[in-house]
């Protein structure tokens, strides 16, 4: 059982020292924490260490201003404190009426929130585990269409958690722990092939399942196949004056031909065509630059007509 307090304390140290020392602290924490865990607990642990890769809880629909509003209303903050959270990027308002502003990071909402709550919350310690925090985050993610429920969930942690926990819970909600350590580096701390596997499949749980096996080699060939939403690639944008030199450098490098197309206003989409056999219906999916496939379906009938008969195999 890993206490959430452990993640908070290690996170503070990593953010403070950064660089090689910060990476070493995080590596030792990961290695120490995963001992004795079952896979499901390990998966929860890594979801909290790498919230930006969590493809289950993609977005909480909460940004800094709305979070500040929730805390202001639940704690009945005075006008100065409310403005401190709302205008956390403004030094004059973020540091207003703080006796010892040393350590507060203007422009960093979790930091400003922490110093605001320090004089407000009576709770000084908590025994919440990472599993319990993960469950709370699941409930919060599921309450996006229920504002009353959302407020109730924040009231619960206000009653149960000290200011430091709020700082790191908010970081998890914002999906940025501010470690200054790339996700690939952290995945390699878990297993030498962690980053390679994730970049291949794009799914955190699938990656962790692969490396959980004690027999997974330190390097391995990766299987092909589409296991995540693809994204259309951007072409290189250059001015007309740069075109000759750009083409020359590409051809000299390894390419034998260069295609140049005008940039027209419109949508950049990637169309995935799928049909198992000639007798099956055509399945078309449109992907945007963010990898979303829920693009309006108004184009699908036209595209199906266009592709019908033009492609004989998939």
TrEMBL record:
Q: Which Gene3D superfamilies match?
A: DNA ligase, ATP-dependent, N-terminal domain
Its GO biological process annotations read: DNA recombination; double-strand break repair via nonhomologous end joining; nucleotide-excision repair, DNA gap filling
Q: What molecular functions are annotated in GO for this chain?
A: ATP binding; DNA binding; DNA ligase (ATP) activity
Q: Which residues form the DNA ligase ATP-dependent N-terminal domain?
A: 4-191
The UniProt entry, under InterPro entries, shows: DNA_ligase_ATP-dep_N, DNA_ligase_N_sf, LIG4
Q: Write down any Gene Ontology CC term.
A: DNA ligase IV complex
Q: Which UniProt keywords apply?
A: Ligase
Name of the protein described by the UniProt record: DNA ligase
């Amino acid at each position: 059982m890993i206490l959430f307090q452990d993640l908070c304390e290690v996170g503070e140290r990593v953010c403070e020292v950064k660089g090689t020392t910060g990476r070493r602290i995080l590596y030792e924490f990961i290695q120490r924490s995963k001992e004795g865990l079952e896979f499901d607990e390990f998966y929860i642990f890594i979801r909290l260490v790498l919230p930006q890769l969590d493809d289950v809880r993609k977005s909480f629909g909460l940004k800094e201003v709305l979070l500040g509003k929730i805390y202001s209303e639940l704690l009945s903050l005075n006008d100065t404190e409310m403005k401190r959270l709302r205008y956390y990027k403004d030094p004059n308002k973020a540091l207003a009426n703080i006796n010892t502003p040393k350590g507060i990071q203007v422009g960093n909402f979790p930091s400003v929130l922490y110093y605001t709550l320090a004089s407000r919350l009576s709770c000084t310690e908590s025994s919440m585990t990472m599993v319990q925090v993960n469950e709370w985050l699941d409930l919060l993610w599921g309450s996006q269409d229920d504002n009353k429920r959302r407020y109730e969930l924040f009231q619960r942690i206000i009653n149960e958690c000290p200011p430091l926990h709020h700082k790191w819970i908010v970081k998890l909600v914002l999906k940025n722990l501010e470690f200054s350590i790339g996700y690939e580096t952290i995945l390699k701390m878990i297993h030498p092939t962690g980053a390679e596997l994730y970049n291949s499949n794009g799914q955190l749980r699938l990656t962790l399942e692969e490396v959980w096996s004690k027999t997974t080699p330190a390097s391995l060939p990766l299987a092909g196949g589409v296991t995540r939403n693809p994204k259309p690639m951007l072409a290189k944008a250059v001015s007309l004056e740069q075109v000759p030199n750009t083409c020359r450098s590409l051809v000299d490098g390894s390419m034998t031909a260069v295609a140049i197309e005008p940039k027209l206003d419109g949508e950049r989409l990637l169309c995935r065509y799928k049909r198992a056999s000639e007798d099956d219906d055509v399945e078309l999916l449109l992907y945007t630059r963010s990898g979303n496939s829920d693009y309006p379906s108004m184009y699908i009938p036209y595209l199906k007509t266009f592709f019908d008969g033009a492609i004989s195999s998939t």
